[in-house]
Amino acid sequence: MNLSAQLGQERYLNSLQFIQNVTDWSVEDLELLDIRSRGTVTRALVPLTDNERRAWEIANYAVMVAALFGIGALWRLRQRAEPPMQLVPAVADGRALRKEVSER
Question: Which among 27, 7, 5 is positioned nearest to 15, based on CA atoms?
């Protein structure tokens, strides 16, 4: 099944490249042909040494912990800045609630 999928993709890409080449040839744009003929090159990263990898890992953890502490500090500051909610005393028959409504 994987083989048939690969063949299908290659057939599509070959058709696409054929159309692009025919278009370039028909307009005779040699600069575009030069660009396409260079091909694609994979640019692999240089492998890190164990010390470099360890340093990056520690730096990533340190940034994450600092960000968590920063978020916690901002959350705490916002909580302190928010005024507390005023509670209405609860009375069994509801007289205190009616009294405050009539005062407004």
Answer: 7
